[in-house]
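Sequence in, structure out.
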Amino acid sequence: MDREHLETIRVRAISVGFAVLALGVFKPFGLGAWKWEGYVHLLMIWVLGFAVCFLTELILRDVARMPRSYEQGVDYIIHRNLWFQLINTPLVSLMICLYRHFMLSDRVPNNQLSWSNFFETLAIIAFISFAIGLYWRFKFRSHYLAQELDETRQLNEQLMNLSPTPSPIAEGSEMITLKGTTSEKITLNIDALLFIETVGNYVKVCHLRDGLVCTDMLRATSKQMEDDLAIYPMIIRCHRAFLVNLTQVEQIVTKSGSMQLIIKHSHDSIPVSRSNVSIIKNAIKREQT
């Protein structure tokens, strides 16, 4: 079992534990009438609540297509947890209503299944869920922001080793020709390519020429450029509008799950889309092995 699954189990177990503890303290639904047997019922509610949490996880993963991915940053995790609460709260409320109806109605007649009992339970569970959600929100944010900063520091250290030569263009490196759909073409040293940006029906090729930053326009698509440069593993798509040469990235900057690449020489800030963050990280790490 990997770290993410263990973390999910731990978070859900603690959250359900907090909810059951609150029920044990305030004893709604006539739990006080059961005396010591009430603790047995609370244990059963914890087990059932834990099972409902995993049902909600399946709904989020397979129906809403929101896998639990720490690589997508702290904002994604918080956003996903909000959706988890919106789905899980009514499901847990329904489960407790059914438990009240079948297991807690002997001594408390008004525990019979009804809309009024459901909305009463929903209000109680929603309040508890809101309090638990606030706790995890701050805990996740502080934990993952620290983790994100540490990972960014490591990536920047690895990035420094991608271009071992002090010159931006290594001696003897390959010359390439990029062609558009018309007669225009650009011939440049592959090491001199900084990034390619899509601008309408054109692409802007930013590169070095005689030590100066130059930009040339080609009537072409970003996909065409990506296919032409596919044999060069360090030229990566980082955004739907950008291809970037990772050996010409000076620094990686992350903030609340978003990533930007600072390009050498031009000092342009290139955005990295959320779906491409893991691709950039893996490409940098792969070059170190």
